[in-house]
Amino acid sequence: MRNFYPSVNVAMLGNYFKTAVRNLVKNKLFATINIFALALGMSISLIFIAALVFVFRHDNFHPNKDRIYRVITHVKDNQENPSYASAPVGLAQLLKNDVTGLEQVVRINGSLNANVVRGSNKIPVYGYYADPEFLSMFNFPLAQGDHSTALVKPNSIVLTKATALKIFGTKDPLGEMITMEPSGELMVTGVFEDVPINSHLNFEAIVSYATLISERGSAFVEREENWTRFVNSYVYFLVAENTTTEGIEQYLDRVASEKYKQQGFKTLFALQSLDAIVPGPALYNSIGPSWDYLSLTLVGFLMMIILVPACANYVTLAISQSLRRMKEIGVRKVMGGMKKQIFMQFVTETTITMLLALVLSYIFFELMRGEAIAYIGDASTVDLSPTPLTYLGFIVFAIFVGLVAGVVPALYFAKIAPLTALKGKEAATGKRGGFPLRKFVITTQFILSLGFIMAVVIVLSQYHYSTNYNLGFEQQNVLDVELQHTDPQLLKNEFGKLASVQMISMSSYPVGTGFNQGYVKKVDNPALSAGKLDSLETFSISIDENFISLMKLELLRGNNFSDNHLANTRFIIANEEFAKTLSPEDPSGAMDQFMKLSDGREVRIGGIVRNFNFDNLRSPIRSFYFEYNPKDFNFANIKIQSEYFATDKRMEAAWKKVNANDPFLAQLLSDEIGNTYKFYFEVIKLWSFLGLMAITVSCLGLLGTVVFTIRTRVKEISLRKVMGASSESLVMLLSKDFVILMVIASVITVPAVWFILGTMLSHMQHYSVEIGCFEIAISIFIMLVLGLATIFSQTWKAANMNPVDNLRVE
To answer: Do 225 and 308 belong together in one domain?
Structure first.
């Protein structure tokens, strides 16, 4: 069988190139529309390609990267079944003691997020506590210090160059003492070269693990509770050369079976190689930036949503435009032109168009790069700067897209019969209605445009619904002040003197923004819920006697906390959901039942408060209780006369009297609640941008199609005008087919988006808005305005042309 696409020589390629450029220049309008639409579609793709190049370079600078592993944890609780990047700290010592073939085991704790006190300044620093082997297992070179001793002793800290400069300026930091809250005095024993941005371990400082142990006690790593509470605890190890991990995995299985056999859930440990962390599976409690496969797939899908319609625009316009060259193609075939030559001509034209679009799309890429980084993370963790590999990826991508997009029109015209081509465009299409793909593409673009518009409108509605939802407690005129180790009673005494302050309470968290999580058991009968559970998951906040009144919570039964501090520690106040779990028939039956808390204390349920949303609206109301534990108080909740007084200078003056060392950190509760829904703004920004891109591509495609349709019907329009047709009737004649496509798109899109977004919102947020007629109507209206404006801008112009000019030419 003959090869349909044999190799071509340079001279022939030069001829294809000249012909392609000539055709592009000849059809400037369609070339401009195609290039601009393709550039918009490709610009998102360039962001994605740059991100992929960056992601797949992660952790490639560690010499032993093929032998470094991390222990991850899979929890099987028959509910969410979460997987964690963290693991119990006690596992590290077991691996050291019991497993052969491990050269090094490193414990990392990710809770280092403190202020370094330098004179009157407080400089925030984040990083990890780590074992000394951290410096030899990973390739983070020291500019100063000895990697074998820098993290051996307690109260040792190693800083990055940038952090050392921020703290000490140009002074040599090695051997200097710094004060870090709450660790106290630390000695700088080393200075890192700045951490590569393509590292999944991202830090400004590393403090010796011995420091953490000295702060929490020598028994810290051996506590049994660490096997169920291992947030911020990570275990890495380096296997010896030519050592397999099968024996290590079997050992971890045995440890998991032994440690969790008494728990109400199953836990499994697994190994994750260093090069499988980024990109990798989505894990809770990730250390450093997270780039998981699902996120990358979603970004790739969003890229295709914009790129594919842009390419489809090109295909339909290329075919429509090339129908006018049908006789040229027929003559070339009669004169001996082969299929492969016709094919290569159209592919060359497409590739040149794509490369021109690439130049323009790179300009868009540079304009969008900063915003893309801000959306993904920040400049310290993301780098989308083009590298030689990135540029190569851009060019290969453009050529690939050009080949794919060019194949359809190339095959269409390469295989058409010479006689059919000589008869002209109407014979080629088979009917005057035009190429059916064009209508399909336009309808698809209307569907995408309307879908994005509906998404933005509905998410805006959800945001408004969330921020105005009645959470069941007082939000207005409440100022939350961080205590920062300030004596609560001193603060109450001093702030109570201010005329703007009406009431003051204390709490461990601002209500609605944070809580403690744990498990409780009934003292008289550990089997809760008809014997199905050994323990009950609960959430809690520590409060004082004024909190319930200040927050306007309703106490249904029992007593509030009082001035008797000792008595307060002996009971808790449960919400209705907690009470119903203990006593489904009659919630009041939960009163006076004794519970054993996570820390081992036995308390009585002394009150029941009406349900309120202690968590954000993404979660339903669950079992919750208030306890009285002054050592956990982190915030003062101050009821003020008006939010205007939140910036009252007298408050800062009162703060200086009770705490002269720390800054006055205060925030309105209403603002804190609003901040929990900021993610909706990010969603709105992303979908609005993508929607704008999709609508622009759609309107460009529609504009090109309308212009081409009008050009092919110039004689018909002129004859109708001569026969007395009005401009209005001609506009309706030329526009009705496009309006019908918009209606079809609306019929398809509205129920689909209503179902998809309704399901998605219910998963994203338990208390979600119902999608109503208003959201649908406003979305359709926006699409109609944009679509009809594009259509009528051309049809009205065509309807008012002078028919004499066109008929004279004909």
So the answer is: no
Same-domain check for residues 29 and 84: no
pLDDT value, residue 6 = 45
| Between 585 and 119, residue with greater pLDDT | 585
Q: How far apart are the first and last CA of the chain?
A: 47
Residue 468 to residue 530: CA distance in whole angstroms: 38
The string of pLDDT tens digits covering residues 594-612 is: 998 877 789 999 999 999 9
Could you tell me which of 113, 69, 105 has the C-alpha nearest to residue 203? 113
Report whether the peptide linkage leading into residue 182 is cis, meaning its omega lies within 30 degrees of zero: yes
Is 389 a residue whose pLDDT tops 50? yes
Tell which residue, 141, 165, 774, has the closest CA to residue 460: 774
Nearest Cα neighbor of 668 from 463, 474, 503 is 474
281 in any annotated domain = no
Say if residues 76 and 268 touch (Cβ distance below 8 Å): yes
As a whole number, the mean pLDDT across the chain is: 83
Q: Which among 350, 383, 352 is positioned nearest to 369, based on CA atoms?
A: 383
DSSP symbols for 558-576 = E----S-HHHHTTEEEEEH
Strands 571-575 and 602-609, by their bridges, are parallel
In tens, the pLDDT along 544-563 reads 999 999 999 999 999 999 98
Task: Say how far apart CA 462 and CA 561 lie, in whole Å.
Answer: 37
Measured from the Cβ of residue 413, the count of other Cβ atoms closer than 10 Å reads 23
Read off the pLDDT of residues 789-800 as tens digits, 9 standing for 90 and up: 888 887 887 777
Residue 511 per-residue DSSP state? T
Write out pLDDT tens, residues 222-255.
777 788 878 899 999 999 998 889 999 999 999 9
Report yes or no on 285 lying in a domain.
no
Lowest mean pLDDT of 11-25, 523-537, 579-593, 776-790, name the range. Answer: 523-537
The answer to whether residues 403 and 351 touch, using CB atoms and an 8 Å cutoff, is yes
Query: Does residue 464 sit in the same domain as residue 493?
Result: no
Residue 223, pLDDT score:
79
Are 535 and 622 contained in the same domain? yes
Residue position matching structure tokens 């050291």? 96
**pLDDT computed for residue 346 by the predictor:** 75
Q: Is the pLDDT of residue 421 over 60?
A: no
Give the range of the structural domain holding residue 517, as residue numbers without chain letter. 478-675
364 and 375 in one domain?
yes
Q: Could you tell me if residue 382 is inside a domain?
A: yes
Q: CA-to-CA distance for 82 and 145, rounded, in angstroms?
A: 40
Kindly tell me the number of DSSP H helices and DSSP E strands found in the chain: 25, 22
**What pLDDT is attached to residue 428?**
44
Angle in degrees, CA 463, 694, 309, rounded to 5 = 140
Same domain, 539 and 654: yes
Q: Alpha-carbon torsion 258, 219, 288, 141, what sign?
A: negative
Domain count, the chain: 4
pLDDT at 420: 58
Domain boundary pick from 675, 694, 724: 675
H/E run at residue 776 = helix 773-799
225, 242, 276 - which closes a domain: 276
Contact (CB, 8 A) for 528 and 521 = yes
CB 592 within 8 A of CB 606: yes
Nearest Cα to Cα of residue 584 among 525, 532, 530, 535: 530
What global pTM score does this model have?
Answer: 0.68
327 and 213 share one domain: no
What is the 8-class DSSP label of residue 804? Answer: H
Burial of 252 (0-12, 13-18, 19+ CB in 10 A): buried
Residue 282 lies in a domain: no
Residue 79 has pLDDT above 80, yes or no: no
CA 123 to chain centre: 28
462 in the same domain as 429:
no
Listed in sequence order, the residues at least 6 apart from 584 whose beta carbon sits closer than 8 Å to its beta carbon are: none
Contact 409, 325 (CB under 8 A): no
